[in-house]
Amino acid sequence: MSREPESQTDVEQVDVVVIGMGAAGCAAALTAHDAGARVVVLEKSGAEEAGGNTRVSGGGWFHHDDPERAAVYLRALCGDRALPEPVVEAWSHGTRQVSAWVSSLGVDVGPHGHYNSAGAEYPELPGSDCYSGLHCVEGILGHGRLFAVLEKALRDRGIDVRYEMPATRLTTDSATGSVTGVVTAGGGRITARRGVVLATGGFEGDPELVRTHLGLDDVPVWGSTAATGDGLRMAQEVGADLWHMDNMMAVNGITDPTSRHGYFAMFVHSRGVIWVDDTGNRFVDEFVPSGHGQALIDGQYVLHPHRPMWVVFDEKTRSAGPISGSADVLPVGWNVLMNGYRWSADNMTEIDAGWIRRGETLEDLAAATGLPADALAESVSAYNAACTAGVDERFGRSAATLVPLLEPPFYAYRSGPMLAWTNGGPRRDEHARVLATDGTVIEGLYAAGTVSSTFSWAKDGGFHIADAFVFGRIAGAHAARRIG
User: Fold this and answer.
1) Is the pLDDT reported for residue 2 higher than 50?
2) Whether residue 210 sits in one domain with residue 126
3) Measured between alpha carbons, how far is 210 from 215 in angstroms, rounded to an integer?
4) Is 6 exposed, middle or buried (0-12, 13-18, 19+ CB in 10 A)?
5) What is the domain count for the chain?
6) For the chain, which end, N or C, has fewer CB atoms within 10 Å of the first or last residue's CB respectively?
């Protein structure tokens, strides 16, 4: 299954090279192979960590039975960041076929009974009625089940997967500019007679790219840190245009300061919590209904959360139950699935480790965090008054979530926020072909998955896995029949 060319200096010839083996890369490789192409998959991580965010995701995909309504929903989610209509049509028809395709790999698929079972995350938008739930392998969320199915399908077909072999650059034809193959980190060269598929994931694992395009500094990530923008850079080097570079999904996350991986902060046992900025001032409704990255605030769909914050709570909330869920609650995320971390039931392990600051009084907490004491005290006082009144006049937080912060000690941690994934990368067309800055096709180069997400703005649950499958399959099929 895993091998290298006999000599790193040999120029090897195959039909299709797929870079990355998450959902998009696996879909591309399987589809190209089944169409008769000789395929090589290059995966930068070792076998035990391969698969990128797909490996640690919920492994669920958006399911629907109405491409016309799905297209309406996607257009509405894009807002004023419209996508080309051929891309919308490819997405809406392709997402309808995902459940059947996964089933064709020899497993049962079905709806998950809880997550996203109530319908779309943006029910107010036209077309949201198309949302028919989140489908998963055997209807079970997470635990790496989807990636295990994909990896087995590659192995069963004898597709050549080369672990610990990152690609470093693309090769091109000097006369036409078309992509002809790849160079690996070891100096090996592979010629792809029909095409190269970039399926390298996003750029959330690269602090400089995150700082440049998202304006966030040194933030933790929820998934694989191998998503360092490799495909983005390789595509730019051959003249690719970019899209969606300022779009992302971020969440309220908490982390061990010595680690780059974070944990979802869920606060399901008590809603006695507020967010304040570095000035100590509360700045948003902490529990505004939101989708996978955006929320409707002041009449606009905006990133939520979108900036660093301190998350403040009291002893009652601390003792109510764990802030972050373990695998028996939500079996997703790198720390939970790959590192096997189980959050303490009373949050004290994490407090004692210094992940969460503590103060016997709000003034003590301000000293522990560096927040201005007067502003922090005023923010808590104003919030508690809103709880007493049952109305959050400033930010409109639901009365059902207004739980006061009254019982000392008080606690706080800094959230970067935590990046789940980025959306931006090389622009592509409905055939998953990468486009140059002048709008022309870069022949022989394809992109799928979060290296080049379809979603220009808002997105719903299961959209990213569905999108990866749709355009991974499109890329694999188109490359397999292309004459180089």
Assistant:
1) no
2) yes
3) 7
4) exposed
5) 2
6) N
